[in-house]
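User: Sequence recovery, please. Input:
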């Protein structure tokens, strides 16, 4: 799971990131609304944690822009505003959940997990992602196809995770690069093709079709029907 934290209180942002990182959740931070929206609109985040009061662009404005872009990213709004009318405003702007400051980090983590599970309604276990005969164990950080455990590198695992989170959706090479390599500047987009090739070899099994489809000129699509 990848989470975007848009929070101008850098001490709080770092604390949230540390709590999530300890649960093997990848995080990116944005200190203001403008940068946060720019990152959010890249479409590579499962959950966005958005503070209400931000420099340059506030939380509700970010929510409205994300929803206008038809992104599937779920949004948890953080705010010190506890009045019912404020909650209604936040939710009506496009937030999926609302957490009032100060909050317990255990509750924050539980809400992030709940929002992240919306990407995989087929999994009975919240720590598992399933598509066809492919299963990712998010807690153990392992993968298997059928009864065979897949020996994946950390990069291959992140790549497969991203594909599984977007079944049937065409993902551009740039989207994949942004998620898997976390905006590393020295990584070329051609690396996506290299690792897709690596992953395909490890997914290949007798009698089972390749679930990763190439979309010419754009990128790749994970087709559940072919698993």
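Assistant: Recovered sequence (227 residues):
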């Amino acid at each position: 799971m990848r989470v975007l934290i848009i929070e101008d209180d850098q001490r709080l942002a770092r604390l949230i990131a540390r709590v999530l990182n300890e649960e093997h959740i990848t995080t990116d931070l944005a200190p203001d609304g403008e940068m946060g929206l720019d990152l959010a609109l890249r479409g590579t985040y499962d959950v966005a944690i958005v503070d209400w009061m931000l420099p340059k662009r506030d939380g509700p404005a970010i929510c409205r822009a994300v929803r206008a872009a038809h992104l599937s990213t779920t949004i948890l709004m953080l705010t010190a505003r506890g009045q019912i009318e404020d909650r209604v405003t936040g939710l009506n702007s496009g937030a999926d959940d609302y957490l009032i400051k100060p909050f317990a980090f255990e509750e924050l983590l539980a809400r992030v997990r709940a929002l992240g599970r919306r990407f995989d309604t087929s999994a009975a276990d919240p720590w598992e992602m399933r598509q066809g005969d492919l299963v990712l164990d998010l807690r153990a950080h392992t993968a298997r196809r059928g009864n065979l455990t897949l020996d994946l590198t950390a990069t291959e695992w992140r790549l497969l995770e991203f594909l599984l989170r977007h079944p049937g959706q065409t993902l551009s090479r740039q989207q994949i690069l942004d998620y898997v390599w976390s905006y590393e500047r020295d990584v070329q987009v051609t690396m996506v093709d290299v690792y897709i090739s690596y992953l395909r070899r490890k997914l290949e099994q007798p009698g089972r079709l390749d679930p990763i489809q190439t979309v010419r000129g754009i990128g790749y699509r994970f087709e559940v029907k072919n698993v």
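The domain at 2-119 is CATH 3.40.50.2300 (Rossmann fold).
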